[in-house]
Each structure stands twice: as C-alpha cells, then as structure tokens.
Amino acid sequence: MNVNIHSSWKAILQNEFEKPYFEELMNFVREEYASHKCFPPKDEIFSAFDLCAFEDVKVVIIGQDPYHGDGQANGLCFSVADGVAHPPSLMNIFKELETDLGIPYPKSGNLEHLAKQGVLLLNATLTVRAHEAGSHQKKGWEQFTDNAIKMISKEKEGVIFLLWGGFAKKKEKLIDTSKHTIFTSGHPSPLSANRGYWFGNKHFSKTNLLLKSKNRKEINWL
C-alpha cells in the first residue's frame, strides 16, 4: 500500500514505516479494503500528513475515527468531502466558529483549507469499515499516530493542541507542555455539546490570539 504523505514527514516517520507493527497494519488495511467497503478512499488515508507539511504544523486537532458513512471521510478528522451533508459534530464546530469569530456558517464541510494552513487534522485511527464505527481500532493505527504526536512534540516548538473530549485529552501525556500549548474542552458531538461542554470554548479565537502574540500567521478558519 502506498503511503501518500508530504515529503517533509518521510524523515520524521521513516522509523515507524520500518517497524514490524506497521507492516502488519498495512497488510491488515490492504486485506480490509480488498474484501470490504472501507473509508476514506485508499488514496486519502494519509491526507492529514499529505496536505499539512511537517514544517507548517502550527495547530493539531485530534479526532478518534473516520466517519463510516458513504462518501463522508476524506482523511482529515471532522472533515467531509465537498457536497456531503455535515455530520452533527462538524455542525457544532461551525456553530462555535460562528459565535466565536463571527464567521458565517460555511456551505462545504471540507477542511482541506485548514490543513494547508498548518492545522494537522489527525484521527487516531486512519481507516474504518463502512457503517462499523471503531472497526479498525487497536490494529496499530493508534501506535502510529501516537508516535507522530510524540515527534511533533519533540521536534517542534510552540504548537497549539486542541483536545476535544475524553479520548483526545488522553493524548496530553504525549505532549511536552513546557514547549507547547494545550486547549481542552468537551467534544463537539451533540451529546457533549448540548450539556454545555463544547459551546463557548472559544478555541478558535484563543488559537489566533496566541499565534498573533508570537508574530505567527493566524489561521483563516473560514
């Protein structure tokens, strides 16, 4: 299976690609895609690493699993392909953007424009079987993505991590907080958001204020 990633990640992750677990993982993924309908499309599995160069990473958002509905997942956490109806979590992200930054609710749920500005939109598990949430968990993806987070923490300075919900917050232990900033809140899913754990977190304006204070280019969230 081809690992389509931006060349800047290759040196950073090369050790991972050579480990036995990664070879087993790729064999598993290959077999799953050959015998079942899986998402995202094969050439978009590594989109988070392909669209956002390592040297450009300013912000990291961590999701859990790709969307498992037809045509939704495009390799970036919380993002969907153009023309696809917005899932509930994404709707709540856009609602928070509206109230936090006064950004009009967008038509497209495709977040590629964020990836290209240095927002790494990383799911912990990069593939899923159609209509079976969590079906590719604990096969090796978490080891791969945890090690990617560790490498960002080790090799970079001043990255802003947005950890939404209990699952993402567990990744805090992988991050050197003396060098990086972490903002946490509830998950944007309706279950969490409707209980008051998501709306009003102002993570988008806080991120831009922090970037501005360090004379770094702010994220255009629109």
Automatic annotation (TrEMBL):
Q: Which UniProt keywords apply?
A: Cytoplasm, DNA damage, DNA repair, Glycosidase, Hydrolase
The active site is formed by 65 (proton acceptor)
EC numbers, comma separated: 3.2.2.27
Q: Which Pfam families match?
A: UDG (PF03167)
Q: Which SMART domains match?
A: UDG, UreE_C
* Role of this protein: Excises uracil residues from the DNA which can arise as a result of misincorporation of dUMP residues by DNA polymerase or due to deamination of cytosine.
Name this protein carries in UniProt: Uracil-DNA glycosylase
Task: Write the gene name.
Answer: ung
